[in-house]
Amino acid sequence: MSDELFPALPYDAWKDTYATLHMWTQVVGKVAVAQAPPLNHCWGIALRITSRGLTTPLLPYGSRAFTIDVDFIDHQLTIQASDGAVRALPLRPQSVADFYHAVMDALRELKLPVKTWPMPVEIPSPIRFDEDTIHSSYDREYANRVWRILVQTERVFNAARGRFVGKCSPVHFFWGSFDLAVTRFSGRVAPPREGPAFMRDAYSHEVISHGFWPGGGPVLEPVFYAYAVPEPPGFKEARLQPAAAFYHRELGEFVLPYEAVRLSAEPAATIRLFVESTYERAATLAGWDRAALERAAPDTDHRHTAAEELAIRERALDETIAETFPASDPASSIPNPDEHDAVCRDN
Questions:
Q1: Nearest CA to 152 among 33, 303, 340, 9?
Q2: Which of 85, 231, 253, 272 has its CA 20 to 30 A from that of 199?
Q3: 50 forms bridges with which residues in the sheet?
């Protein structure tokens, strides 16, 4: 396994693995749909990035709970129950039908039988999971590459949203469209939207979203994207940064080719620039109350080194702790865990 942070991901080289992996993640996602309690904007069924791959939320099952982890280092899928029961399945070239039956069988063996709707979503010409013998490719190298890109993207997206104090989604992976996304909300209700129920729920309020998508349809290359719903007048004509970003009229959003990011001198900084440039322009044009939704910007007289960024964050954390847990003596400066949990829940 290479340690390259932003590896090449040519669409044609891995498109068969991509198509198969997309269906496998949908199989896992459908289990989450069956078990997770409803949460706005489908947040409760999205997958999360881990240090080894992807994972479901903790899924309740009676008095038990379980997770499904997809590991792109050891290349296996693991189902772990709260009572200690575990089943591991190898990720290898196999049809979607075989993968689906293996996952369902493993759940039954763990006494976690789940009934799902075995029909893929958000793709043209879907084939039922239990009948799909067409998609069967799995290239370990490319599966690992796309996960490494997701890891680095998640890190940048989380850092970029740090100053936003309004409602914001987690950085999570939507298996329906196979993209990593983060969404900020203005707090205002959006005009009614046509489409399926999950889309109406996703865009019930004004949003600005950013994400990474390996491509498909009219875009046969991996891209970073940014869009606003509803799109404010003048947004598509906006001149944004970096220069490689452009408005894709068929998609109705700004895109930044991944290859341009990968070949830039500082890929993480290039992603951050794209996110901040598109957010700031869209929020301003849409009339968001940025003074209420954002923390004051830090000192920007010069570009901070990684060490300076860390020092700034540590100082900010110290100040937050001091404000939240005022201490009259050194012994009382250690936060009470119960008080800390209450603060986190309230916020």
A1: 9
A2: 272
A3: none
pLDDT, greater one: 71 or 318: 71
How far is 174 from 46, CA to CA, in rounded Å? 5
The structure's pTM equals 0.85
pLDDT for the residue 299: 57
Question: Roughly how many angstroms between the first and final C-alpha of the chain, as a whole number?
Answer: 40
- Tokens in use for 117? 């709707």
Q: Measured between alpha carbons, how far is 57 from 59 in angstroms, rounded to an integer?
A: 6
Cβ atoms of 100 and 118 within 8 Å: the answer is: yes
Separation of CA 297 from chain center: 25
Give the separation between CA 231 and CA 254, rounded to whole angstroms: 11
Q: Please spell the DSSP secondary structure of 170-217, one letter per residue.
A: --EEETTTTEEEEEEEEEEEPPP--S-HHHHHHTSEEEEEEEEE--BT
Rounded Cα distance, 142 and 216, in Å: 16
Beta-bridge partner residues of 47 = 173
Compute the chain's Rg from CA coordinates: 22
CA-to-CA distance for 43 and 112, rounded, in angstroms? 23
70 near 53, Cβ under 8 Å?
yes
Whether the Cβ atoms of residue 171 and residue 56 lie closer than 8 Å to each other: no
